[in-house]
Amino acid sequence: MQLIIVLIAAIGAQACQRERSLKSHWHQSHAKRQASNATFPPVLDANEQILLDSFDNTSISTWSYYYTHGAHVAGRNRSMAQWTADRWAEYGFASRLDEYYVFLNYPVSNSLELKYPNGSTFTASLEEAVLEEDETSSYPDRIPVFHGYSFTGNASAEYVYVGSGQRVDFDRLEALGVELEGKIALAKYGGPFRGLKVKNAQEHGMIGAVIFSDPGDDGNLTEAKGVAAYPNGPARNPTSVQRGSVQFLSIYPGDPTTPGYTSKKDSPRADKSNSVPHIPSLPISWLDAQPILEALNGFGTPGAEVNRTNWVGAIPNVNYSTGEGSGATLSLSNIMEDSITPIWNAIGIINGTNQDEVIIVGNHRDAWIVGGAADPNSGSAVLIELSKAFSKLSETGWKPTRTIVLCSWDAEEYGLVGSTEWVEEYLPWLKTAAVSYLNIDVAVSGPVPDLSATPDIHAIASTLMKKVVYPYRGSSDQTMYDVWFEESGEFGVLGSGSDYTSFLHRGIAAIDMGAGGGPLDPIYPYHSNYDSYHWMTTFGDPGFHTHKAIGQFLTLLLYHLASDSALPLEPADYIPELNTYLEELNETIASTNGTLDLSALTSAISTFSTSALEFNDLRESAISSNDSDLLTVTNHKARDFSRGFTSQGGLPGREFFQNLIFAPGLDTGYAPVTFPGITESITFEGDFDLAQEWVGKTADAILVAAGILKT
Ligand SMILES: *[C@@H]1O[C@H](CO)[C@@H](O)[C@H](O)[C@H]1NC(C)=O
Ligand SMILES: *[C@@H]1O[C@H](CO)[C@@H](O)[C@H](O)[C@H]1NC(C)=O
Ligand SMILES: *[C@@H]1O[C@H](CO)[C@@H](O)[C@H](O)[C@H]1NC(C)=O
Ligand SMILES: *[C@@H]1O[C@H](CO)[C@@H](O)[C@H](O)[C@H]1NC(C)=O
Ligand SMILES: *[C@@H]1O[C@H](CO)[C@@H](O)[C@H](O)[C@H]1NC(C)=O
Ligand SMILES: *[C@@H]1O[C@H](CO)[C@@H](O)[C@H](O)[C@H]1NC(C)=O
Ligand SMILES: *[C@@H]1O[C@H](CO)[C@@H](O)[C@H](O)[C@H]1NC(C)=O
Ligand SMILES: *[C@@H]1O[C@H](CO)[C@@H](O)[C@H](O)[C@H]1NC(C)=O
Ligand SMILES: *[C@@H]1O[C@H](CO)[C@@H](O)[C@H](O)[C@H]1NC(C)=O
Ligand SMILES: *[C@@H]1O[C@H](CO)[C@@H](O)[C@H](O)[C@H]1NC(C)=O
Ligand SMILES: *[C@@H]1O[C@H](CO)[C@@H](O)[C@H](O)[C@H]1NC(C)=O
Ligand SMILES: *[C@@H]1O[C@H](CO)[C@@H](O)[C@H](O)[C@H]1NC(C)=O
Ligand SMILES: [Zn+2]
């Protein structure tokens, strides 16, 4: 059984492992925030003015150009890591490269052939078209289409269309009596993280998986509806392919051979079979998928009768039938080179006067393609511009109160590898000193701001969005807050899909930010060769004005977290959120026949609420008396309380995920689930005894957090 996931066609997603138009907001924050009544243009203090004035769209474009004109798949471009560290050094950060030795694999050769019952064949191209207009689409060292961490092997068999490959899709196929054992799964992108599609296929005895892009995810912006495709227009190029990792992201991110410890050259290596597939897989374009799906027309249950959400896409002449009995077969070959290989995180530091308080800002650098103009290098360009802004401020003699650490992660795309290994290495320091982690991955893939964060960061993020002028659809007389408020006005809950994950699951406050496309904005060619400088300057963000605004916001957030005398984190903002999660849990229970005693959880939330409000009083008196010792006490409480939400042993079956308030859904990979220990014991196991046990553990965690805040 599974909760109903509300899919809203929507705003783009900033997390690079997440997909575009079907972002699932299983949970949004409690309520839309208040409309801004602030004056326009925003009033800034002198330091804010220096920081924001330093931002220049043309220099951002220069950084973007650098990052998008050389192959930089994980572990393959040390010079780009060094270049990043060198820019930060130039702008006053002490910089270095942190190296890890991790398991990665790279494509050697692949093929995919369809054999019709009459013996004739169709060979999939497995290529994205070279476009004259887009210079990096023809680079000789462009990256083949493949799945990171995919299994080396051949598979040849009949195949079944499995929808988006969630557990519920497989349940439906079983209910329809479709034989899966020994077959190849043909799955559509969208919905759960791609690695979980492969995992589900594998767990049903299937021997290979092929995952295709579908214009059905593009709303009205399709060639079939008369919209020209890239490079001539904003629709998806029919040959574009979504590369990506097939790691089992909801079980364990990071190097699969070193679960729970860091990957040094001589680190012992563990069995990786719990977190990567043992059946081969390939990604394909919708053009390659068309004949493969068409061969299933008339066989098995037609898509329209399967009655599963999002089962039927929009590829012409295709019924999205399950396909049993078609007599057509696929031969899939996926040969990868496995290696233990170095990766490089670039790290830049400015020591604060309080070294036991640290703000970390991170963006990954590796991309599946030569470009990566949105994912992730829109964020990388912003981080160079941010370091430049702080160097301007430093010229005035300013020094941060708290230590600032900039991180340019490698190997995020394979499974958050650079950030996870780094957090594993520096965990004792981070647990003591980290105040918050600010993530920027896809800074820009469209114009609509999109933010997800732990509740304690909501207030400061809202305040600072009001200080950034945000160009939007031709007008520039509004703030980022105005645009965000108009388009959503709610913070998302963090699930997984980018480098904040390791921080969040060690109890560190976190935010993930970026801007994506709405339903009428150009289709973002996620993990395709067309996520290029040409696409960005033509469709994604011509003029780099959105880059600039998002960068200014991140810069202000970092500035205030690093220098406000009272740390601007709001523990009390957890109160309404926890109560919302409780109500949702209650609804989940009500939709089943089970019963659960939630009194321990209710009471823990109430204790937390009392402590958080008392904390506010104490902080108020520290501020009004300007008592620096007392401010240190309250700042440390604000820094530390969320550590309480973690449990050493992690969630059932997934030790890595220690945060008991939010986690990526077991079968979604990206989309969050709240009170995950309790909720998933019900929705996945149907085990109310286990759920009751997790009510206790979750309540205890909330009490620990309350205890840290207690005055
Ligand atoms: C803006 O709204 C806040 C509360 O929502 C209020 O305290 C403040 O006075 C208002 N400011 C202006 C300028 O109206
Ligand atoms: C690394 O990236 C830079 C900048 O894009 C590029 O100039 C260089 O050729 C790349 N190196 C390799 C080995 O691909
Ligand atoms: C075999 O079947 C396919 C699909 O129906 C068709 O396109 C093709 O022309 C057929 N080949 C022969 C030789 O009949
Ligand atoms: C797509 O177009 C149809 C017909 O014009 C319209 O009803 C629908 O709302 C549009 N969908 C979106 C997501 O804009
Ligand atoms: C799908 O639902 C429709 C109407 O709800 C029903 O008529 C049909 O039998 C269902 N199809 C299957 C395969 O269960
Ligand atoms: C399957 O698709 C074909 C081509 O689009 C169409 O002619 C046919 O009616 C469809 N069949 C069903 C059962 O939907
Ligand atoms: C796998 O398939 C490829 C491509 O068809 C072929 O070259 C190779 O020999 C096959 N390998 C095995 C072990 O069957
Ligand atoms: C920052 O502080 C650390 C720890 O105290 C020290 O090792 C390092 O040298 C300092 N860096 C700079 C640039 O002052
Ligand atoms: C920066 O913005 C200005 C003003 O809109 C514009 O003329 C210029 O082309 C932009 N620079 C780049 C590199 O896009
Ligand atoms: C859960 O819902 C029931 C009614 O369905 C209500 O009586 C109870 O108070 C609710 N519990 C919580 C913790 O919200
Ligand atoms: C609850 O029990 C009834 C009767 O046994 C059953 O029909 C129904 O499907 C059950 N509902 C759920 C959500 O398990
Ligand atoms: C607060 O105290 C600090 C020294 O601890 C001093 O520098 C600052 O000026 C004081 N601020 C106010 C508003 O009194
Ligand atoms: Zn990314």
Structure description:
This protein has 711 residues and is of the alpha/beta class. It has helices spanning 46-53, 57-67, 78-90, 167-175, 194-203, 286-294, 303-306, 377-394, 412-415, 417-433, 458-465, 480-487, 501-504, 533-540, 545-563, 574-590, 599-625, 628-640, 676-683, 688-709; strands at residues 94-115, 121-123, 147-148, 153-161, 184-188, 208-212, 244-245, 281-284, 329-350, 354-364, 402-409, 434-444, 448-453, 510-516, 662-664, 672-674. It has three domains: 22-102 and 339-563, Zn peptidases (Aminopeptidase); 105-337, 3-Layer(bba) Sandwich (Glucose Oxidase, domain 1); 571-709, Transcription Elongation Factor S-II, Chain A (Up-down Bundle). It is built from 20 helices and 16 strands. The strands form three sheets. Strands 1, 2, 4, 5, 6, 8, 9, 10, 11, 12, 13 and 14 form a twelve-stranded mixed beta sheet that branches. Strand 1 (94-115) and strand 2 (121-123) form a beta hairpin. It is globular. It starts with 45 loop residues before the first helix and ends with a helix. Mean pLDDT is 94; it is low at 1-15 and 17-30. The structure holds 2-acetamido-2-deoxy-beta-D-glucopyranose (NAG) (12 copies) and zinc ion. Residues 596-710 form the Transferrin receptor-like dimerisation domain. Residues 1-15 form the signal peptide. Belongs to the peptidase M28 family. M28B subfamily. Residues 162-233 form the PA domain.
